[in-house]
Amino acid sequence: MKNGKYITMLPDEYITIGKLQNMFGKLRNMFGKPQNMFGKLQNMFGKLQNMFGKPQNMFGKPQNMFGKPQNMFGKLPTAIGKLNCTLNIYIIYIMNKSSSYKTMAGALCLAACMMLSSCEKEQQPVALETFQFAGSDTPIDALDVGEVQPVTVTLSPENTTERIIWTSADPEIAQVQSNEPGRVAGVIGLKVGNTLVSASTLDGRFSQSFPVEVIIKVKKITFSDGMILQSPGTGRFDVLFDPENATIRDLLWTSGNPEVVGIDPASGLITALSPGSSVITATAKQGGKSASIEIFVSGEPPVFGQEYCSITGYGDYCADRVSTSGAVQDLAHSNANIPTDNYRYYEGEKLTVKRGEPFTLNLVQSNNWSRTLIWIDWNGDKDFADEGELVAVFGNFEELNDSPFSRLIAVPEDASPGFARMRVITGDSWSFNFDLESVEPCGNVRHGTVKDFEVEIIN
Questions:
Q1: Which one of 120, 219, 250, 401 is at 20 to 30 Å from 44 when CA atoms are compared?
Q2: Contact 429, 370 (CB under 8 A)
Q3: CATH number, domain 130-215
Q4: In a 3-state reduction of DSSP, which class is residue 340?
């Protein structure tokens, strides 16, 4: 007997399987109590360091050997690798060569089959035939800086073993990352610019690309305070973008009631058409963010906002000439004709003044039985009732008042920039007597004529 009683029974050519009782251990220890199932590893597989090298090389991490239960008796980890095949082959070899050892070899085969997986067949490569981007040929809209958008590809056949490789022509503008097979990728914008993202097979047989634009997207838009009037009946609004450095700032303008307020859809220029109200909406072409504001139109001719109070008169008293000097743009009105209903707004005859800078106002009446009062709406609130808005009184009550008259007018430092009105009333000095402390020039003026002029106030 040499090296154990079973070894002496085997021919010399089978000596390579080693000490069988040491290799598999005693079966009662192997399948007895769970803790003894595998016996001491050095007894189960012999001294592993001698037979297969260090244990960690044979089995890898222990958790891979005895991980999920289904792996214990199913397919053991690939770390066992060729050992499975080698042991099974040895056992089958024994069974074929020596029928006298079938009983012993069968038991050993049963134990080995419970422990070891059969040799696995390697997966055969499946070639890719076609692939395309899911959704469209340009799967990504404009990217914001820091934004990630996903891209997927559809492969045919679905079980292809080929990978898709992703690249960016300019990784400083946009970068791309993908999962292991390359079927799903994410593109992130890094800085403003344009680049090309490509997907291809490793060997380059198939390749597709799409453009990527990286911008700073519009998050919000709002109207700035107040309408910017270009005339009493035309104006526009400024729009504030958030963030301020948004790349695309194009807007589309609409009017909710175009019969009241007309609007140019590209420039946003609005025009008062008839009394009423309308909602003006600005919409950012990139991203669709919008802002709206309601505006009002009144008067005839129509103007934005509240209408100046109406006023009429009768009689032959009139301011024949109204002029200024020293203004940014001087007024030079000369018209002795009495207007219809003794009132007229002289559109187009404009006075332009600068805040804080004075100008001289000159006036000539149609006769010396007259007196004239003049108001300017300094704060643009569509009335003449505020303190300091009665700017001149030419002539005394119940006296003859010879013209011409002149008065230095101080433009307030806090006058509201924009368009306002100057109202000039000339009437009979014996019957025309406003309470200068409280009167607002509205209604009907006995023996008087009213002329309105446009005033633009600038900084």
A1: 120
A2: yes
A3: 2.60.40.1080
A4: helix
